[in-house]
Backbone:
C-alpha cells in the first residue's frame, strides 16, 4: 500500500509539473503583450504632427504680400500729373525796314520764373541782342539766353515767319524736360515793333483736366531812341502782332 501511494504521488507531481510548464510556454508563444503607455503616445498619426512650411495663422498678411503694381492702386497717377499741350496762336504782319520783326514766346510760373521758351526769332536768339540790346529785351533777360548752350538756342529759335497766322506749341515741360504740375501759368509774347518800341502780350492759362482758352492782353510801350521818334497808337507797326490766343488742349 505504501509503495502504491508513493507511486501515485510521483505521478500526480509529474502531472502538476507538466501543467505548469505548458502554462508558462503558452504565455510566451501566444498573444503579444500589450504596448506600454509611452509607446501608445508616440504612435500618433503623421498628419497630426506635420507642420505646414507656410506662414502661421498669426502672421500679418501684409508681410507676405508682393508690392502692388502702380496700375493696381486705386488712385494711381503717373509721374506726369497732366497730359496735353498749350497752343499759342497769333496774327503776324511782317514789317519793312530795320530794327523790327523780332518776337519771342515763353511761359512762366505764377512766381515769375521762366519755365520754357516756346519760340524766339533766330536773329536775336543767336546773339543779335548783343548788337541791338533793345531787341525783345525782356525775353532776353528772363530766359537767360545769353548763357544757354547752342543746342538749346537751336531748339527754340526759328526764322522770322511770313505774314499770316503763327502757331507755337508748348508741351508742358520746363527747361529741364520735366512735366509741369497742374496749376496756372502765364504765357508771354513780346514783339519788337521798332527800335525801343515793343508790345507785350500776357495771359494766364490753367493746366488741369479741363480744356481752356484765354485771350492775352496787350501792353504797348512807345519810346524814342537817338534820332528815332517814338511810335504812337496810330503807327502801322502796332499790327505786327495781334490777337494772341492761348489754348490748353
Residues:
Amino acid at each position: 500500500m505504501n509503495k502504491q501511494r508513493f507511486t501515485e504521488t510521483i505521478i500526480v507531481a509529474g502531472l502538476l509539473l507538466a501543467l505548469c510548464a505548458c502554462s508558462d510556454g503558452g504565455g510566451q508563444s501566444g498573444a503579444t503583450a500589450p504596448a506600454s503607455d509611452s509607446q501608445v503616445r508616440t504612435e500618433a498619426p503623421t498628419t497630426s504632427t506635420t507642420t505646414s512650411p507656410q506662414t502661421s495663422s498669426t502672421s500679418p498678411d501684409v508681410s507676405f504680400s508682393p508690392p502692388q503694381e502702380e496700375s493696381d492702386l486705386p488712385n494711381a497717377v503717373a509721374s506726369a500729373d497732366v497730359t496735353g499741350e498749350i497752343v499759342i496762336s497769333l496774327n503776324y504782319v511782317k514789317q519793312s525796314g530795320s530794327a523790327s520783326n523780332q518776337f519771342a514766346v515763353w511761359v512762366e510760373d505764377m512766381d515769375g520764373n521762366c519755365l520754357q521758351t516756346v519760340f524766339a526769332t533766330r536773329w536775336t536768339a543767336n546773339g543779335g541782342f548783343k548788337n541791338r540790346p533793345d531787341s525783345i529785351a525782356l525775353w532776353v533777360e528772363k530766359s537767360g539766353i545769353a548763357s544757354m548752350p547752342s543746342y538749346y538756342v537751336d531748339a527754340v529759335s526759328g526764322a522770322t515767319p511770313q505774314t499770316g497766322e503763327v502757331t507755337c506749341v508748348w508741351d508742358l515741360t520746363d527747361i529741364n524736360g520735366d512735366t509741369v504740375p497742374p496749376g496756372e501759368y502765364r504765357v508771354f509774347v513780346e514783339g519788337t515793333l521798332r527800335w525801343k518800341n515793343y508790345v507785350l502780350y500776357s495771359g494766364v492759362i490753367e493746366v488741369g483736366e479741363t480744356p481752356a482758352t484765354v485771350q492775352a492782353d496787350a501792353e504797348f510801350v512807345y519810346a524814342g531812341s537817338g534820332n528815332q521818334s517814338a511810335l504812337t497808337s496810330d503807327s502801322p507797326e502796332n499790327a505786327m502782332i495781334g490777337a494772341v490766343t492761348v489754348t490748353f488742349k
